[in-house]
């Protein structure tokens, strides 16, 4: 679902499992989508599917994005992180506009702010450019949010293993590999099973470590086999126009 064609290759397309056991009930479908960039096609598709979608991203080019795109689709200028942080960022391509303010929120903090604390999440989408490992290990794994999450779309980045790991010494490589494995095993122990994998076709990059050759960037899709359907309580408050 979603995505667009770039150089004759699909980018931004995400998977969705429609098996009856994990299909959401009508008007009981919560979606959090992180790192949308400027492509909301997947989020719009899920909204039309009957979900309440909350999309997140933040840089200077999102300044004029409205919060309420439609009745079921909201966009918030924030990024997911391990803890709350507000900082100025500056990029060379933003020279005419100067630095811009970015807010990072932990997932638990966002759900509390938006009135979803304790709510079962149908779909969690994360494309957060390499910080997914720390976000899971240092933040999300310390909550029970994933136990109530049904489907997970996760773009993974093995940035620390690029160029055959040439920028790391042996111990640093081992630390990186162990971190990646801890997160994968953490998902599995919470009931998630890998349902689909494919390389990132827009920017394919291969690397080799310890004789194994693999893609640095890839799209993964997970389904929670321990999922037990329950009915979410309706929101008791209106969606805020701003997070803070």
UniProtKB/TrEMBL annotation:
InterPro entries: Methyltranfer_dom, METTL24. Residues 10-177 form the Methyltransferase domain. This is Methyltransferase domain-containing protein. The lineage of its organism: Eukaryota, Metazoa, Ecdysozoa, Arthropoda, Crustacea.
